[in-house]
Amino acid sequence: MAAAFGGAAASRLLSPAAATKSTVSLSSASPPPSLKCLRSTPLLSHLFLRQKRSTVHASSARNYSTAASPKCFASDSDQLKSAREDIKELLKTTFCHPILVRLGWHDAGTYNKNIEEWPQRGGANGSLRFEVEQKHAANAGLVNALKLLQPIKEKYSGVTYADLFQLASATAVEDAGGPKLPMKYGRVDVSGSEQCPEEGRLPDAGPPSPASHLRDVFYRMGLDDKEIVALSGAHTLGRSRPERSGWGKPETKYTKDGPGAPGGQSWTVQWLKFDNSYFKDIKAKRDEDLLVLPTDAAIFEDPSFKVYAEKYAEDQEAFFKDYAEAHAKLSNLGAKFDPPEGFSLDDGPAKAAPEKFVAAKYSTGKVVARELSDAMKQKIRAEYEGFGGSPDKPLQSNYFLNIMIVVAVLALLTSLVMN
Questions:
Q1: CB-neighbour burial class of residue 29 (10 A; exposed 0-12, middle 13-18, buried 19+)
Q2: Which of the following is catalytic: 46, 106, 136, 235?
Q3: pTM of the full predicted structure?
Q4: Which residues form a coiled coil (predicted)?
Q5: Which residue, of 97, 238, 290, 294, is most buried by count of CB atoms within 10 Å of its CB?
Q6: Is 235 an annotated catalytic residue?
Q7: Mind giving me the DSSP string for 106-159?
Q8: What are phi and psi of 172, to 5 degrees?
Q9: How far apart are alpha carbons 6 and 245 in whole angstroms?
């Protein structure tokens, strides 16, 4: 999938002439000054497919953070929301959904659960903005995704690269018709290229034992078989280009007309639509124009993987549910959050303030036949506050109702005694 996300999306986003022009302008532009912090409260062997780096990619790779990286350790939620809208507009004009998903996954997919220290453990920390990591074989072409997002990053200085990469990835999935992802934000960026992970943590697309290789890589991240298969379903997006990855056909009947730059081989017919076609098409094996990598085939050959692949081919709702959970989990692995618990961009409205205590409100019903007198209201209020209540602090238990019951019982007993 890395081939499709990096190769296909990158080449169709920029023509050779445009790519050259972009390279010149980016390398000659002066980086923006450091800005004051604004404090605010697709992994798979094929997604991370080791790709051949072209001369153009190597020469166009740029260190996006040496002077421009933010000094803060959290993102501003309002700026993140605005950046999300800008990303949606970007998707409308560039069809860059696949490469943005891949960018987020590759930044997160270096996580190693056996390493406790941050940032040595890897994960979503914005390290992919550095040239040294862009040059990793599995990241070929991702410089184009960085070029697309850099203007948004410069516009919203209170957003970390780590959050921007994950926001772009999640927005691309949702915009393509995929599930709503339970994302959280507040990721801290690494500060220098020396904090980038070593090359070799991302999976290969054609290892000798595909199923074993997938488990070796994803188990290292703390993901299980269900999550591996669910994440592989993101291959419903994107194309692979042989000149970049060594995989796929130069062109098929599904890719010869784009959108964007034509060419490459897709995993699905509608390769910009997020659904469960990936599983259905691999299971059917009826179209030679659709790509099936060794690691794709493994999910229907390995007994444990096959259980989930068969399920997702029949039940898109189940796939969407499991994918949403796996994607969000992947985006959080290894990340350092500020605030530590992170925050959501889609929190509901604030809870209503506790209702003011009005004794008269509780004087109706069969317990008392008429409106309580002012004296009785004051007495109930005094009793209420005696238990720790106040007009602005409702009690956990319904003490005022208990008081009313006691009053009623006393009245009944008094009546009986008098009789």
A1: exposed
A2: 106
A3: 0.69
A4: none
A5: 238
A6: no
A7: HHHTT--TT--STTTT-SSSSGGGSHHHHTSGGGTTTHHHHHHHHHHHHH-TTS
A8: -65, -45
A9: 9
